[in-house]
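Hi support team,

I'm filing this because I wasn't sure whether my run with heme C finished correctly. The job status page said complete, but I'd like someone to confirm that the output block is well-formed before I use it downstream. Pasting the exact inputs I used:
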Amino acid sequence: MFKYFCLSVLVLMLSCNTSEKKVTIVDGTKKYDVYQGSEMAILMRGMHAFNLQLKKEVENGKITTEFPEEFLKIYTAEFSESKSRNSTFDQYSGKFIEAQKMVFTEDSSVSLSKRYNTAINLCISCHQTECTGPIPKIKKLLIK
Ligand code: HEC
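And here is everything the job wrote out:
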């Protein structure tokens, strides 16, 4: 019961809407509600994980990866039921992709950590418009 409670709280904190589909997995006598996300939510979790790794590389001053082409799915991925693509989203997604790509550009006069933070700040800007739940988690990606 306590576990279930923790999981529910986690879901409420990390996602923007509470009406997400949940799948119940019955494991012996225990029941777990597993949170399933939309294509967009899954993409976002991937973007978070990627940038968490990238942050370490930026802090060490050496990037070993390239811009992940999967991020371009932000233009086509399906949203959760209660959400849909709109002009604000389109505007911010374009800006974000541009900024994320800039992190991987070698010839820039702007420092690597600044370019990285610009991309993360665009995650936050978009989230401020319609999906505030994950903001505290995203803020942790910023390099201070
Ligand atoms: C253009 C707007 C926009 C940008 C840019 C953006 N997000 Fe999101 N994010 C959203 C929306 C909208 C959702 C909700 C998607 C849904 O529920 O279908 C979301 C959901 C999430 C979630 C919750 C996923 C879940 O499990 O429900 C996390 C975490 C997240 N974003 C992190 C990030 C990070 C990290 C970045 C930058 C690397 C980022 N986002 C960039 C709009 C954006």
